Amino acid sequence: LDVFLGSIGMHAAACLLIAYLRPFLINVITPKGTEFEISPNVYAQGVTWFIVYLGATMFVYLTFYFLLEAATFLNFFLLLVKIFLSVLVSVIFMLIFLFLFSAKKKRRFA
């Protein structure tokens, strides 16, 4: 993605941050005493947990990416609006694609 957009590794750096913080985010979001699979799964953890997980990871990813892109805090309010709207739209599209193209399994809405 960085090659085609000419963004010099900004997406790769944000993805690396998410990969590094993933165990911490999962431990914070998952209730104590709950069994967790190797990868987050909407059918095993439930829709509510999965939306919180998507929102948290996208918030970290987009905050890091937009801070790298802007390289300044001058328009901090505009940056926050850009982050929150991007997280909202991204999570909505991810959920649409998840439920449109995933295999039909027993869904647990919690």
Concise account of the structure shown:
With 110 residues, this protein is mainly α. Helices cover 71% and strands 0% of the residues.
What is the radius of gyration? 16 Å
Q: What structural class is derived from the secondary structure elements? A: mainly alpha
Distance between the termini: 35 Å
Chain-averaged pLDDT: 81
Residues in β-strands, percent: under 5%
Secondary structure tally: strands: 0
Low-pLDDT stretches: none
Secondary-structure element sequence?
A: HHHHH
Helical coverage, percent range: over 70%
Shape by Cα distribution: globular
DSSP summary: helix tally: 5
Largest sheet: none
Overview of the structural elements:
This protein has 110 residues and is an all-alpha fold. It is 71% helix and 0% strand. It has helices at 2-5, 10-29, 42-45, 47-70, 76-101. Helix 2 (10-29) runs antiparallel to helix 4 and helix 4 packs across helix 5 (76-101).
Protein topology:
Elements: H1 2-5, H2 10-29, H3 42-45, H4 47-70, H5 76-101
Helix pairs in contact: 2-4, 4-5
